[in-house]
TrEMBL record:
Compartments it resides in: Cytoplasm
PROSITE patterns, alphabetized: FERROCHELATASE
Entry's EC annotation: 4.99.1.9
Protein name: Coproporphyrin III ferrochelatase
Pfam families per the UniProt record, alphabetical: Ferrochelatase
EC main group: lyase
Pathway: Porphyrin-containing compound metabolism; protoheme biosynthesis
Length: 311
């Protein structure tokens, strides 16, 4: 008797896989408007600064393979097949949904490689998946993991990585080193919509620091878009300046809104924020990304399994 098959639509942001793809990728992010030459050059230079291209595609593939393996280990009564769909690069979410339909997937769970829900982040991925499902006539049954920011194994995984970063300081100093939990900034108007995103970032930070008994922490923002409207702040660079003015000499940054090494982590934190901290004579330690760490993948798999049972 063959096993019941559940397809997992694992959605990620996507990144260019070659230098030639940077412009179409940037154009897609800008909803079809080509970037000006100066904008394109700046983005290209940022990729060059981290080694030429982002490792995001390779990490996302490793995460998908690890998630599929973990799901099938945790629940051996069902066959789980993980499909990757990207928001801004091939394979796009629509292409992946089409592939799932072609493969005969009738039952599915959608999950985004991002722990915190916002109508402007997770909400847009789900919208893309639903539009594709309508277009391709399936999968017939699909439900979505909307957030997993307090999933116990995710908190445990993050806490272990934060503790490891704090361990880089002498034992008598580490308790007083502030930990700033960052996430990708979004336009401030989400606050008027009652969006849970800022609160969920705060909840993750609180759960993580409670687990390791660390009392010096707060949240900050990074990677804001360049549009006229105000975005959530304070930005991490402003946080570093403020902490310096208050006499703080060391800072741990945990980009908890991101689950892999990519441009917003490797450039915005590892280069830009680190450079500012160096200029101010501060020590900045960045918490390692989870990438395809087994405990992290088990956290996501557990959230998916819980949703599969509900869905």
């Amino acid at each position: 008797m063959s096993k019941r098959v559940i397809g997992i639509l694992a959605m990620a942001y996507g990144t260019p896989s070659s230098v030639e793809e940077i412009e179409p990728y940037y154009t897609h992010i800008r909803r079809g408007r080509k970037p000006e030459s100066a904008q394109l050059q700046e983005l290209t230079e940022r990729y060059e600064a981290i080694g030429g291209l982002s490792p995001l595609n390779e990490i996302t593939a490793a995460q998908a393979a690890g998630l599929e393996r973990t799901l099938n280990e945790l629940d051996q009564d069902v066959q789980y097949r993980v499909y990757t769909g990207m928001k801004h690069a091939h394979p796009f979410i629509e292409e992946t949904v089409q592939k799932m339909v072609e493969d005969g997937i009738e039952e599915a769970v959608g999950v985004v490689w991002a722990p915190h829900y916002s109508t402007m982040s997770i909400g847009t991925y789900i919208k893309s998946a639903e539009e594709a499902r309508e277009k391709w006539g399936g999968p017939a049954r699909i439900s979505y993991v909307e957030s997993w920011h307090l999933q116990p194994l995710f908190v445990e995984s993050t806490a272990a990585r934060v503790a490891s970063a704090l361990a880089q300081f002498p034992a008598d100093e580490s308790a007083s080193v502030p930990v700033v939990f960052t996430a990708h900034s979004l336009p401030e108007r989400i606050m008027q919509l009652g969006d849970p995103y800022p609160e969920q970032i705060e909840e993750t930070g609180r759960a993580v620091t409670e687990q390791i008994g660390h009392h010096e922490w707060f949240t900050g923002w990074q990677s804001a878009g360049r549009t006229p409207e105000p975005w959530l702040g304070p930005d991490i660079l402003d946080v570093i300046r403020t902490q310096h003015e208050q006499g703080v000499q060391a800072l741990v940054v945990c980009p908890v809104g991101f689950v892999s090494d990519h441009l917003e982590v490797q450039y915005d934190i590892d280069i830009e924020a680190k450079q500012l901290a160096d200029e101010l004579g501060m020590k900045l330690v960045r918490v390692a990304s989870p990438n395809d760490e087994p405990l992290f993948l088990k956290a996501v798999a557990t959230a998916v399994l819980e949703q599969a049972k509900k869905g």
